[in-house]
Fold these 4 entries.
Entry 1:
Amino acid sequence: MREVPIDQVEAWLYAYPVWQRQLQNLHTQLEELPDGGRRFRPAPSFCKGSVRDVTYERVAKRLEFEEVYIHPLEVRVQILENALLALTTDELRLVKFKYFERMSNALIWEALFISRRGFFRKRTYVVHKLFEALGGEGAPIWSQEWEEEVDGVHSAW
């Protein structure tokens, strides 16, 4: 049995708010990219125009933007959001305080009315629970190949 990669799970939790903001900004930027007209729909057919066609270039740029920058972030955000559904409200509060708002440990255990030891035990339990919700040790997200494939040219870290 493989040890739970606590550092990786926590890295995803710390990165989650950043990924959400990046995704919002990228969608805003995508809206501003010229799309060659709303009537044009890319279809798997042969183009009668030249490769230097302005419409073709615009659509190709939009598709590249979506596939290289937006899609990897959407995948990660969706995976993490699905895993967060497995947590109880108290566990979600701990995750929100610790990873999304980045509060200090002392403030968190005071806000949750738990002891210092209880905080660390609960944090470890929550990270293990999230690891299992993310797919456990057999999940492809923990493999180096998946990271390279999803990141591609762009790194969301």
Entry 2:
Amino acid sequence: MNLRRHMPTVYRALALLAFVVTWTYNGRYILGGGGLGPAEFFGAAFANDLTQAITLDVYLAALVFSIWVVRESRRGVAVRWPWLHVAICFGIGLAIALPLYLAAREDLRRDISPTSEL
């Protein structure tokens, strides 16, 4: 079995799983009276040392991911709509944006050459 051929599907399935899992909790937060305004949202995200560590970890990883996406687009790895992946990262979630980007990257690799490595 050629796993490489199936990787875009695997990545998209992981993005869907990440969306369902993370937004289940986001929905609970919102339905429980939590707000998405910056003061309320970041107040909850930085409520204690543990949530602060997790929040900073995810946002720093999101920053690294964003730099990588932009640098790749500038060096000619022309994944369609690179800024859309950055927007998804900060607007919806890194766990969704990263596998979607990897799926698009695999699609690009396959379109360029079945044996290329990006």
Entry 3:
Amino acid sequence: MTMLATVAPEDRWFVGLRFSTARGAVRSHYYVVGEADDAEDAVRAAMHRAADAHECAARENAVIDGVEVRRLRWNPLGWAYLTASDRDAGASLHLGPGAGTAWSA
């Protein structure tokens, strides 16, 4: 009998961007980012994705007013989990009120 070794996927970043529309509605869009070296790069990559015309239309052109960053990891059994929030990830990007803070959904 041959045992197949399973390899856990590389860690990724889970970035949530919060938006407040002109009508006061709050929306959150989440992005899984694998190409970033750190939390700040992950936020930049998510913001780049959020700048896509379809994404802008989906959120009614609302401006980003909050960021949540977590690591998406896998345990040895292959179960995915999120790490605690990285509260400083968006702080240096000057996104506006609430930027760089985590929030609970």
Entry 4:
Amino acid sequence: MPRPLHADEMRPADPLTGIALYGWERTALSALKRMTRSIRTESQSLREFPAPAVPHVDRCSFSDGGLMLAPLRYGAFRYLAAGRLVNMLGNGVAPIALAFAVLDLTGSVRDLGLVVGARSLMTVLFVLFGGVVADRISRRLVLVGSNVLGALTQAAVAALVLTGTATIPLLLALGAANGIVSALSQPASAAATPQTVPPELIQPANALIRLGVNAGMIGGAALGGLLVAAVGPGWGLAVDALTFAIAAIAFTGVRVAAPPAKSTRTSIVADVRDGWVEFTARTWVWVVVLGFMILNGALAGGVNVLGPAVADQTIGRSAWGVVLAAETAGMVVGGLIALRIRVRRLLLLGVACMFAESFLLLGLALAPTIVVLLPAGVAVGIAVEQFAVAWDTSIAQHIPADHLARVYSYDMLGSWVAIPLGQVTVGPVAAAIGTRDTLLILATMVVLAVLGMLASRDVRGLEAVALARAAVAQQAESADGGSGDGPAATPAEPAARA
């Protein structure tokens, strides 16, 4: 980079060539240097993030408020965010409608567990395959196709329930099919975000996505309850099928580059193995996933199983619902906070926030009152969003685009695999040693899992790419005498690419 000019020189020389220049010559040469550096920055940005044809966004292009909403300037991102919001609206309706549909059919909690479990099992079994598919072909095609299939499977379930011809075996089969559809869509959905915005906007883009997801879940749960009460669970399932169809239409607008074609065709097994190599190549990735395997297992047993049982004997069922609603509200607040946070070590902040996940467990064990549990739920929600945005941003910035979906699939598999174990084992353990002691053990497991993640130097030291680039750019501009000669560029709409 050019060195700064010496102030005591009457006719300063160009630092690279040593040739003395007059003022107008220096101005022309300085403009040429800035143009060259801009082209070089553009070229490197395209090499590292080959998917979207989006221009480099200068770090001074937006005010803080403008930066928060800047991702919405890109059409592909708007369609992706809309599709995911509608998806989550349906996901909020579906569990309520399906639960009451099965209970109306047989009245058996066991049957409900089988139907729900079949979907979850297929999602876990096929998520690695979903990651391979999303890295092989256009993610837009995967998103559109999986949502069309989801609309068909849920429409079939709705038709069976509405016509009174539903049986448990049929619901099991359709639930399993819908689980496979979910396994196909989730890695593609997660990996698509960094393809729709420039690298500098990945963090606010993830925060906006998370805001939409949480808003969709809140609205979907409320809508599901109203539909089931007013017109029955069959119509709730029909609305869920409709949301799949609407999301499929929205995803047609996510026009981003398809993964680069490989010179040699590889098998699915080889691609899965290649994804594993990429997943384990970065210590911070597998350390965090391992930590969340423990953390999610503890929370699934403590909050999802023991939580309602404790609430039944203390604050009551309706109050427990308020606590869970407070956690969701905290997520919305957390998403707004994540939009504004600008720290260099974003993953460190996100992981440290996960200490808050122990608050509900400790509250249930030591002081199960609404005064304690309500603020604990809000704090947990805020903390979860800080980690979620930090994690998605770190993955998007540091994992090659052509491996991103496969790394996400290993992330999902590792994070989910202990959840059923936690749900199944927590009951017998609580019966043996008591609910209070079990909750304290689970809270300790959460704290130890977070400490284990923070013990990794790679987790503590990982830097956000955009901020690191901004620091380098600032140093370069200072060395070149500043870049305030002209107005900052405003990003243009990215060119649509099939």
